[in-house]
Design brief:
Elements: E1 2-6, E2 20-24, H1 29-38, E3 43-46, H2 50-60, E4 65-71, E5 74-75, H3 90-93, E6 97-101, H4 105-111, E7 117-121, H5 126-136, E8 139-144, H6 153-163, H7 171-183, H8 187-191, H9 195-202, H10 206-212, E9 222-225, E10 228-231
Helix pairs in contact: 5-6, 6-7
The structure holds D-malate (MLT).
């Protein structure tokens, strides 16, 4: 099994059509989507722009649709839910349909959409996503969303967690694994002072950080097929 790791969605130059791709945006987009799928959402449609999300919700045209996401980590006015995983309770999302746009995460998913199999990973479903990736092929690429085109330490640390459940690594995958192995008993210490964590902290989102750093508490493995994300076990 070969594992390649990309630090940002923009750094993926090769064709991923023969790969099983895992997109990771641990703070917070893929943690939110894993949580929503775990809690029974029917499906999620990821889109790049706020206007596209509004149009898509209008096209779906039913009471079940939730408009979800953020811009620069802040809620979008008029949207039902922000990008806090704590809002995606079973009461809020079970049997609903989501249209979601985030600054980096949904764009990374759309950038990887030609992958043979496209899964969403986070700490929450680290073992479950590694299991489904392994079942689906030998060539695995982990694509980190990053933040505004830059490497984000939380995504690399989470990639290390997923890689530790797989193996046969390129150099960045090896680095992520070493980082994760050194800090797996204290993930918060690994991220202390890192840019994305500090930004969320400055916005008072400490509880979201704590939530997103829980390991293996969910079995949902969201899978993108033809524009729509659903649980791969559904
Ligand atoms: C993103 O997609 O850029 C993020 O998930 C940002 C955030 O809300 O923390």
């Amino acid at each position: 099994m070969a594992i390649e790791l990309y630090a940002t969605a923009g750094s993926v130059e090769k064709d991923l059509r023969n790969h099983v791709v895992i997109v990771v945006d641990v703070l917070r987009a893929t943690s939110v989507m894993v949580t929503a799928v775990e809690h029974g959402v029917r499906f999620i449609i990821p889109v790049s722009e706020v206007e596209e999300a509004v149009d898509m919700a209008r096209q779906l045209g039913n009471q079940r649709v939730l408009l979800c996401g953020e811009r620069q980590a802040k809620p979008i006015p008029e949207f039902h839910l922000s990008n806090s995983p704590l809002e995606y309770t079973p009461e809020m999302v079970a049997d609903r349909e989501m249209v979601m746009t985030t600054t980096n995460g949904t764009r990374a998913i759309l950038r990887a959409k030609d992958a043979r199999v496209l899964l969403l990973g986070s700490f929450l479903n680290a073992s479950a996503v590694a299991h489904v990736a392994r079942e689906n092929g030998e060539n695995i690429a982990i694509v980190c969303a990053g933040t505004n085109g830059k490497f984000s330490l939380d995504d690399i640390l989470c990639s290390g967690a997923i890689i530790s459940r797989l193996l046969e690594l390129d150099d960045l995958a090896r680095t992520a694994l070493t980082l994760y192995d050194s800090y797996k008993d204290d993930l918060r210490a690994a991220l202390a002072g890192s840019a994305h964590v500090e930004r969320l902290r400055s916005l008072g989102m400490e509880d979201d950080i704590r939530f997103c750093l829980q390991e293996d508490v969910m079995d949902a493995v969201p899978c993108y097929v033809d524009g729509v994300i659903r649980d791969s076990y559904a």
